[in-house]
Amino acid sequence: MNNKKSLGAKLVGAPYYLWAAIFTVVPICIVMYYSFTDSNGNFTINNLGQIGAYMDTFILSICLGAVATAICLVIAYPMAFIISQMPASKQRIVLILVMLPMWINLLLRTYSLMNILEDEGIINNILSFLNLPAIHLINTKTAVVIGMVYNFLPYMILPIYTVMSRIETPVLEASKDLGSNWFQTFLRVVFPLSIPGIMSGITMVFVPSVSTFYISQKLGGTMELIGDTIDRQFNRNNDFNSGAALSFILMIMIFICMAVMNKFSDDGEETIVV
Amino acid sequence: MSENNVILTEGSKALEPEPPEGNEAIIKLKNISVTFDGETILDNISFSIKDGEFITLLGPSGCGKTTTLRLIGGFVDPTQGEVYFDNKLLNGVPAHKRQVCTIFQRYALFPHLNVAENIAFGLRVRKTPKKELAKRVREAIKLVGLKGFERRKINTLSGGQQQRVAIARAIVTEPKVLLLDEPLAALDLKLRKDMQVELKNIQQRLGITFVFVTHDQEEALSMSDRIVVMDGGRIQQIGTPQDIYNEPENAFVADFIGESNILDGVMLEDYKCRFAGRVFDCVDKGFEQGESVDIVIRPEDIKVIEHGAGEISGIVTASTFKGVHYEVILDVNGFKWMIQTTACINVGDKIGITIAPQDIHVMKKSEYSGKFGDYSSFSDEMDYISDPTYVAPEKLNEREGEWIVSPAEAEGGAESGE
Q: Are the beta carbons of A185 and A81 closer than 8 angstroms?
């Protein structure tokens, strides 16, 4: 009887296992194969050895990614809280507004951001109209961070909103009832309960921010992030081996960052992360 | 009759119900009205709660009992009227500054904290010194019998254990008044009975005031010092369980608390009334001559005698064995009486009944008169259930759940809270 049931469960799960195998496990194996071979297919660890040369790029990528993630968190957290406290009908409208940019292509969004940030762009036009000095934004780190925040903000808001909307009103009332004022309720109840949402929000913003190449190409000028380096190895230098090695190391670095993050969150086992 | 059924004309001062001897009134509600989205939830209610008593707000769902509790807890503001605590006006005082504590319907425990931390919550907020905090938490855990569960996560506890954590979390802050919002509704019958006894014990040991909300009349009768019966946002009656049961104020109270046969009657003179086509001696007086009244007769007060020997006779249409007694439905000229008797009576038997004068309760006519009456619908239901050959017509199938419940459950138990 038991076998029959588990066979059915296996059959239902089969397409997903297949999917995971083809699109996750196999690609990772391919990346690892290229990482540890030279152009002739012989085993080598030289690819990984050249990472030292790209250390600055790695550090810059992680720093910008971290700054963008932090800014997203600062903007998204209060916003998610405010949305979760709204009446249900309003919540739906605001959530659609939050998700609306996600329906528009990333390239398109980044191009429009270029227009806004350019020296002759909308921001500087407005500044000059107000007789204020122009500011140079395009091709700076600031522009890249703005691009990351703009593009990935919804991925921070949504998971935090989800955990916050699941906090039951009676739980908040119980906190007040036991003598906490608004701030204490937030600190002792709302915040601890929203940590899982924060963790998955950070993952969903930090990972794409660190590995982005398009945003930095369009908004960062000559600036090269690790994503750009990998892109260059594959597309221009046709050096699959060092490209794969860089990807592999990036993956491990992100994995370490997330592991450290999870260690800091009290409820590690409850987070949806990794 | 109770002095508390205060009906006030607009703008008049409340007739304060006299706080009974000994105990001071700790909470006073004065002319409270609550309207929400144009709907009246509470309609000009006034009553006081004595220090140290176990008072129950009893009524069907939507009667305003939970709103009354939330009003005292500080989660609902009155549209009109005043709440006093220790003679100080409580209106506008936020929930976290009130010396009352609530036990919520579904416990509302903090899912991110373990048992001990949940209980310590109120003390941590008050910045209680570490040593004292640990001592008081330990005492509270012992009081509710949760020793050994200190480090357990909330979601690993059973309903009854969560209930105990909620009680400990509330009493550890030593509130003067504990508000309990249907705290036992989610527990199974056996556990509910145990917790009733335990709650009552805790209340007596701590000597603090309990304001208990329930729709379960049995629970209310067995636990309370006083009961406030509510319906339609108004207080129907306030009194001891004995008062409420033996001297119901109107047809609603009589019907809601226990089983009752409610008949139309006329008061002929003091101590004499007429109902069911006959004249009876009774113990009530003070009605006008010829005033039409509602007569309540409890099923257990009716004595079964031989057919034709007493005032009333009829034919038995249903008889259910209930363990201690039989529940008999007797058809007397179309009016179906419910009788509880230890005699073995079968369907189709012809029997007579007699009622002693002190068991006839006379009530003034009210808006509820005529809404509750005999047990005709009950006996129909019983016919279906007691007839093994009966097959429900197909279209009735979906209603099955509806008629396999006793009327008491259908009115009181089937609702799942407000």
A: no
Contact between residue B272 and residue B344 where contact means Cβ atoms under 8 Å apart:
no
Over residues B335-357, the pLDDT tens digits come to 889 999 998 888 989 999 999 99
- Quote the number of domains for chain A: 2
Q: For chain B, list the domains and their CATH numbers.
A: 25-246 (3.40.50.300), 260-404 (2.40.50.140)
Determine, yes or no, domain membership for A43.
no
**What is the number of CB-based contacts under 8 A between chain A and chain B?**
62
**Residue type at B11 in one-letter notation:** G
Question: Are B151 and B116 spatial neighbours (Cβ–Cβ below 8 Å)?
Answer: yes
Locate B312 and state its tokens. Answer: 């009333």
Tokens for B212, please give them: 């208990």
Give yes or no for a contact between B231 and B218, defined as CB atoms under 8 angstroms apart.
Answer: no
- Choose the mutation target among A177, A182, A188, A265 for the interface with B, i.e. most B CBs under 10 Å: A177
- Residue B8 near residue B44, CB atoms below 8 Å: yes
B chain contacts of residue A271, beta-carbon cutoff 8 Å:
none
SS3 label, residue B278? strand
Q: What is the ipTM of this complex?
A: 0.73
Indicate whether A160 and A215 sit together in one domain. Answer: yes
State whether A189 and B104 contact (CB < 8 Å).
no
Give the domain range for residue A67. Answer: 51-270
Structure tokens at A216: 């930095």
B324 and B341 Cβ atoms separated by less than 8 Å = no
* Distance, CA of B386 to CA of B380 (rounded, Å): 10
Residue A30 sits in the same domain as residue A137:
no
What pTM, to 2 d.p., does this model score? Answer: 0.76
R_g (Cα) of chain A, nearest Å: 23
Residue B104 to residue A184, Cβ atoms within 8 A: no
Q: Which of A170, A177, A184 sits opposite B95 (nearest CB)?
A: A177
Between A177, A181, A188, which is nearest B102 by CB? A177
CB contact under 8 A, B95 and A188: no
Chain B nearest CA to A182, separation (Å)? 9
Same structural domain, A135 and A178: yes
Alpha carbon of B321 to those of A64, B305, B324, B339, B382: distances in Å?
Answer: 79, 19, 8, 12, 12
pLDDT digits (tens, 9 = 90+) for B57-86: 999 988 999 999 999 999 999 999 999 999
